[in-house]
Design goal:
Structural class: alpha+beta
Strand order of the largest sheet: 1-2-3
Order of helices and strands: EEEHH
Helix content: 40-55%
Strand content: 15-25%
Radius of gyration: 16 Å
Low-confidence stretches: none
Mean pLDDT: 82
Largest sheet: 3 strands, antiparallel
Length: about 100
Amino acid sequence: MSKHTPGPWEILEVTPDDWQINSDLRDDCLVQMTPTIGHEHLSDEDKANARLIAAAPDMLAALEQVSRMWRVLRDEGMLNMVEEAIAKAQGVNDE
């Protein structure tokens, strides 16, 4: 399993309808957000998706911390939900 580019990831608004998600550790963009086919501008949903993508490394780190905490507290239901989200983010089931 390959690792993702470490965070933080940030949104660079090149133009109002051309957003990039970048990392300080890479010289090129990770994700390019442009209007969907048939639209002239980024929709509010496109912008929300960009924000969610940019937050992914932070959310993964938070979930990993919560997972460690829940192991100590022994709440198996919450632990399973968190670990499934972590596995999805890391692509564990993609192999």
